[in-house]
Specification:
The protein is mainly alpha-helical. The chain has a two-stranded antiparallel sheet with strand order 1-2. Strand 1 and strand 2 form a beta hairpin.
């Protein structure tokens, strides 16, 4: 089975993303009547051992990644290989590569303060591969991934009400 490796960004996209600094993120919580919260602690990719809240950059969006990857695959005539099953198997392979980076490390602290820059870079690349395959698979299955994720979070809130599950790791069917 052929799983062509793909790179998601055009040179133009790469250049603009590398020169544009992260911005403050204003989040509107869908369940709090439009109230907003501002995240002032934007992660710049540097090592940080403080308890600052992490956030992603504003761009690219999942849809921008989808478009870039679609263009990349189309230009190379790889779309014929990108059927859902093939994409799933490729993504599982990439998840295995992420797992390999954590293998034999024991517990890993948030922010990876004990990891070398080489290890962090490798993790960044492998997680990117997983995300790219996930977005491509979602596209091929016609699943609006951001919308589906919001729906799943809402469902999980119902399955795991705070008053029943706070501080517990039980599965939803193990309560009452």
């Amino acid at each position: 089975m052929c799983f062509p490796f793909f790179f998601p960004f055009s040179p133009r996209m790469m250049a603009s993303s590398l020169t544009t600094p992260p911005k403050r993120v204003k989040m509107v919580h869908p369940e709090h009547n439009g109230t907003t919260a501002t995240n002032n602690n934007v992660h710049d990719g540097s090592d940080s051992t403080t308890n600052e809240e992490f956030s992603f950059s504003e761009a690219p969006t999942l849809d921008q990644l989808r478009i870039l990857q679609n263009e990349f695959a189309t230009e190379r005539d790889w779309d014929k290989f990108h059927q859902p099953r093939n994409l799933l198997l490729a993504m599982v392979g990439e998840v295995g590569e992420v797992a390999e980076l954590f293998q034999w490390k024991g517990e890993v602290k948030e922010g990876l303060p004990d990891w070398s820059e080489k290890e962090r870079s490798a993790l960044s690349q492998e997680l990117s591969d997983v995300l790219i395959y996930l977005v491509r698979l979602s596209e091929k299955c016609h699943i609006d991934l951001p919308k589906a994720a919001l729906e799943k979070i809402a469902l999980n809130k119902k399955k795991y009400p705070v008053e029943k599950v706070h501080g517990s790791c039980k599965k939803y069917n193990e309560y009452d």
